[in-house]
Amino acid sequence: MLSLGFWEPVLILAGLNAIIAIGVYITLMSGQASLAHAAFAGIGAYSAAVLTTNFHVPFPLAILAGMSVGLVGGALLSLVTMRMSLLVVALTTLGFGETMVVIAFNIEYLGGAQSFSGIPLYTSIGLVYAVLALVLFVAWRFDHSRLGLAARAVRDSSVTAAAMGINVPLVRILTFALGGGIAALGGGLSAHYTLVINPGDMTFFESFRYKLFVLTGGSYTFLGPLAGALALTLLPEALRVALALSDVLSQSLRFMIYGIIVVLVVIWRPQGVITRVPTGVRARFPWPGRPAARVSPAAKVAALAAESRADRADASLGSPGADRP
Amino acid sequence: MEQLIQHVINGAMVGSTYAVVAVGFALTFSVLRVINVAHPEVFMLAMFTGLVVVQALTQNFLIVLVIAATAALVAGLAIERAVLRPLRRADLLMPMIATAGVSVFLQYGVQGVAGPDELRFPRILPFAPLEVGAITVTSLQLITFGIAVLILLACSFYVRRTRWGLAARAVAERPDIAATFGVNVSRVAQITVGLSSFMAGAAGVGIAVLYGSAWSFVGLLYGLKSWVCMLVAGNRHIEAVMLVGIMLGILEALTTAYVSSSFRDAVAFVVLIVVLYKRPDGLFGSYSY
After folding, report:
1. Shortest CB distance from B185 goes to which of A94, A260, A325?
2. How large is the average pLDDT for residues B221-244?
3. Is A325 on the interface with B (CB under 8 A)?
4. Chain A, window 178-237: residues with a beta carbon less than 8 angstroms from a chain B beta carbon
5. pLDDT for res A66
6. Which residues on B lie below 8 Å from A95 (Cβ)?
7. What percent of chain B is modeled with pLDDT above 90?
8. Which one of A177, B20, B118, B243 is least enclosed by Cβ atoms within 10 Å?
9. Is the model's pLDDT at B236 over the cut of 50?
């Protein structure tokens, strides 16, 4: 096994963050700005860790069990937030996450405020990146699936989507469940690496971080959350090395720089850094058995619409004079 | 019974400060359609400005209040100019993320200067307990409560009775149509953010004196509570937001007293989820956004 020294834990963390960010991305794709994904990661982590630590269930089974708890939780939460608008969903799911934190704090069996510890170590860097590759594959196929296209339509306008015959509630439930499940999967892996789970890992602050990864990276293609999670996890560590200080002042300085960079990136590219898959990449890696020429007309229209949306976003940046009230 | 009344009174005192922050938050949200995550950080900034003024300049409460609230006003306007205005045409979530960046910047900036620990804030107001039967209220509590109520009344007057308040309500209803009728939407946005920040600043000093402490991460708690107040009440009537803020304070005090202090923070969120499930626009209705 090759040794990466200082960077190995950082890379593992980046990989885990990327997995959870993909979960956030898939849920956001249908216009549900969830701030509960840290809670789903925590639910997955607690479920999987209790199974491996207290019941000696094999690791893969425990992870899958944690993931299914996240799936069910996501579906149920989407039923609650179904009628709400984007920002109200964000704050309601935030409330759900904070409630989970308080509940975890008050359950003795889960260690309460003392954290749940004694979890066996199973997660390695190889496993994290193998799972990340799998999750990326799922996200890539999701982007091109009927569900993915329907989700985009719902995100752009749920009323229009419903008028076109899309089952809006079903799309919302499925994407929330899938996103919650992937976040729980990431959480389960993370618990078997850090070996301890703290209720504080589920707070809105963490959820906000995942949302930050997705929105700064770009929330219209699965490459966005990947890039966002990797860059924004590595950035504070790179700053730590660059500043080479180790007191409170350096921590403050690091996060101040982090905050400024986030603000500047958002102002520079309000749609996220990556807005579409580069066309060259798409042509080079067509879905096996389905040549690029046989892409259905509907998908082409959807792709064109997505690209023109991205172009419009770029154009509107360049014309500050055109003032839409 | 006396105990119950005592808890209700204490809760209302705390709730009035939630109400001041929440009203500023709701004003910004309804006029700009932006969740200003950095709003509670402006509140925190005023606390520390107040601390500096007390230590370096004067112990006079009114002067401290005005200077700190003005500092908050300046900070709020700077955030509006630097972050919110460039993102006016962006996706709804982007200003939220950008102000979260600002908020991280401010939290750690203040932590870097003031250190990670809570700082003691001098009691610059008289602390005399007043007893009515078995109920005790301190003059400190009464003064901060009075200031909160004054701010809320002034805010209500501004929104309901002045030209700029009318313009703000028009923009909250339909920004495009308000603009057609000659409302300067950018200026209304600016004034709204300025006013909200000023109010938050005043509340910040009040809280710092009331609890006798200031620390760099206080915004997290107040931010969450004020979001809850705004959503539960709906942002159409700011008076409703005030009422819900005070009710939330009372509810929390009662939970702490009769259930468990560890469930105090969850109460707000359970109320939030139940109310929004039944009424997605809040109890008293919201502007469409």
Report:
1. A325
2. 88
3. yes
4. 204-205, 208, 211-212, 215-216
5. 95
6. 228, 268-270, 272-273
7. 40
8. B118
9. yes
CB atoms within 10 A of CB A287: 12
Contacts of residue A74, Cβ cutoff 8 Å, sequence gap at least 6: A27, A40, A176, A177, A178, A179, A180, A181
User: Is pLDDT above 80 for B114?
Assistant: yes
**Strand A116-117 to B135-138 pairing:** unpaired
CB-based contact, B278 to chain A, within 8 Å: no
Closest-CA distance, A40 to chain B, in angstroms, reads 17
pLDDT on residue A300? 61
Chain B: residue whose CA lies nearest to A272: B94
Q: What is the pLDDT of residue A1?
A: 46
- Reported ipTM: the value is 0.85
pLDDT score at A279 = 65
Nearest neighbour of A33 by CB, restricted to B93, B108, B231: B93
Predicted pLDDT at A285: 61
Domain spans in chain A, listed from the N-terminal domain onward = 7-216
Q: Is A114 on the interface with B (CB under 8 A)?
A: no
Determine the residue among B35, B39, B272 to mutate to test chain A binding: the one whose Cβ has the most chain A Cβ atoms within 10 Å: B272
* Interfacial A residues in 238-267 facing B (CB < 8 Å): 248-249, 251-256, 258-263, 266-267
The reply to whether A96 touches chain B by the CB within 8 Å rule is yes
List pLDDT tens digits, range A179-203. 999 999 999 999 999 998 988 888 8
What pLDDT is stored for residue A280 in this prediction?
Answer: 65
Residues in A touching B248 (Cβ below 8 Å):
none
Residue at B69: amino acid letter = A
Instruction: Give the pair of three-digit tokens for residue B48.
Output: 């520390």
Q: What is the Cα–Cα distance from B43 to B113, expressed in whole angstroms?
A: 17
State the Cα–Cα distance between residues B46 and A69, nearest whole angstrom.
44
Smallest CA–CA distance, residue A187 to chain B, in Å, is: 23
The DSSP element (H or E) to which A118 belongs, if any, is: none
Give the residue, A134 or B228, on which the prediction is more confident.
A134
Say whether residue B272 is in contact with chain A using an 8 A CB cutoff: yes
- For every residue of chain B, DSSP letters joined together read -HHHHHHHHHHHHHHHHHHHHHHHHHHHHHHH----TTHHHHHHHHHHHHHHHHHHT---HHHHHHHHHHHHHHHHHHHIIIIITTTTTS-THHHHHHHHHHHHHHHHHHHHHH-SSPEE----S---EEEETTEEEEHHHHHHHHHHHHHHHHHHHHHHHSHHHHHHHHHHH-HHHHHHTT--HHHHHHHHHHHHHHHHHHHHHHHHHHHTEE-TTHHHHHHHHHHHHHHHH-SS-HHHHHHHHHHHHHHHHHHHHHT-GGGHHHHHHHHHHHHHHH-TT-TT-----
Which residues of chain A fall below pLDDT 70?
1-4, 244-249, 277-325
Nearest CB among A88, A102, A259 relative to B102 is that of: A259
Select the residue of A83, A105, A266 nearest B87 (Cβ to Cβ): A266
